[in-house]
Amino acid sequence: MPRDLTKKEALDRAIKFSERYVERGAYEFFPEPEVVRVVQEGLGENEQAYGYRYCP
Questions:
Q1: Distance CA 22, CA 7 (A)
Q2: Quick one: pLDDT band at residue 3, thresholds 50, 70, 90?
Q3: Residues 6 or more apart whose Cβ sits within 8 Å of residue 42
């Protein structure tokens, strides 16, 4: 079920989610920020469209 979020809200949630994910585990972001941003945008778009942050 789609979430009633604006594009900015969905992106902000995806960024916060990914930052927490990296902080809590033995992970780090990909070294190219543009790639990280595309993935975060995809997560936000999927949450808007489907209600979940499916991996883009």
A1: 23
A2: confident
A3: 55, 56
Residue 43 in tokens? 């997560």
- Residue 18: count other Cβ atoms within 10 Å of its Cβ: 17
What HEC string does 1-56 produce?
CCCCCCHHHHHHHHHHHHHHHHHHCCCCCCCCHHHHHHHHHHHHHHHHHHCCCCCC
pLDDT bracket for residue 2 (50, 70, 90): confident
Q: What's the predicted TM-score (pTM) here?
A: 0.89
